[in-house]
Amino acid sequence: MHSDHASRFTVIAHRGASGYLPEHTLEAKALAIGLGAGYLEQDVVLTRDDVPIVTHDIFLEDISDIALHFSGRQRADGHYYAIDFSIAELKTLTRHERVNHAGHLVFNARFPLSACRFGIVTLAAEIEFIQGINKSMRRNVGLYTEIKYPTWHRAQGKDITRIVLDMLSHYGYRARGDDAFFQCFDALELQRVRRELGSDLKLIQLIGENAWNESTSDYDAMRTEAGIAQVATYADGIGPEIDQLVRWPGRGAAAQSTGLAPRAHENGLKVHPYTLRLDQLPANAPDADAVLHALIEAEQVDGIFTDFTDTVVRYLDARSSREPG
Ligand code: CA
Q1: Regarding beta strands 142-147 and 246-247, do their DSSP bridges make them parallel or antiparallel, or are they unpaired?
Q2: Residue 56 annotated among the catalytic residues of the structure
């Protein structure tokens, strides 16, 4: 590979600089821009009044104080769903670092639970924030927007896909040449985006595991030669898990390729794996640099989602300084 690959390499701040500040806060997004991210990720769900907000789950009790403020508004399954609240209600909440059901930090070394007042952010506010910093810093940081559970939203009577595409278009993100990627786990929905809704945005087919029940898509079939060829008929790239590309079979073992990245490249698809986390490396991987080395030098991936933007930027800088001329 040559240095032009490095300059085109897509560093995607996964939920912002979420390794350092609570995910999907504007503070985490600002830090990611400062650390050199090329794209910021937005996971998007809808409120009761159809406002797209930037948050990872369709329920909010793991990342906010919603249960304190709106006790009794949870559904029978115990979850406080964003879609049951108006944006005015959600703006009264304070976001915090992600916790588990016992109220403990999911990642112990990350930002503590604190008195800091982080808010729920709308997609419109985040886009204006990014465009504002792009103006003031003369940057061109892009959007990397994911719609969450479109089939579930439709069952609740809402077309999240159309609402989000309309908003992106309103802010100038419509075509492949624009600084935006549009990602989804649901293959049928992504096909709808391209074919029925006629979007010309860069589309990324996320690839999960069937056991997650993310969508009705069959991710085992999707990773085969025929499956990847089918993805290439509507998408510009894939977003697989790191260990769907490369694995370390044991401690001290060399990385082994699954063959998925070359298969995607043969079909003209970009490859943007998720998620590089210093505090949750792939099984048996020795360290973050070894993961980056395997992904970038061997698998030739085109970008990476990371909670730790600076780790990837530092690797790319060291790499380009090693290269002659
Ligand atoms: Ca995501």
Answers
A1: unpaired
A2: yes
